[in-house]
Amino acid sequence: MCDKIARMRFVDVKLDHLQMVVDESGKNYPTLRKLKVPLGLMYKYAIIHEIIPKERNLVEYLNIKNAGNPNTYNRKPFSKAEVKRVWDVKDSNIYYTVILMLIYSRYRIGELLDLKTMLTIAGVNDKAIKKLHTIPQMILPLNSLPSYGIL
Prior knowledge:
Blueprint: H1 15-25, H2 29-48, H3 80-89, H4 94-105, H5 109-120, H6 126-133
Helix pairs in contact: 3-4
């Protein structure tokens, strides 16, 4: 990622060089954060050992907020018409109820599966009950859990 500045002397690296590395990387924010942290440590070391003056700490001004991942998947929430369609057919198949639970509780599928595991293996604990209460009662009334094989 830093190939363009790898052969430069540390004191010759300017903010434009660092910003170019960030902008041309095509990486997302968390990845660039992992780059910015060690760069910050390098500049801190250079300041402590008087390699550069304190006012040359360029990492402070490095902008990683505009980072973008070209492979990102644009997720769009369900439209009102799509949600209504799921409500209309929810009684025909139990899996439509699961879809409604995911929509309204904002769980990811892995979290919902963890919840079922937490309830069946560890028994009903406080953490599981708190998670269950975040699922709207109109979708999954708590007294219906045994009929779904969860309790």
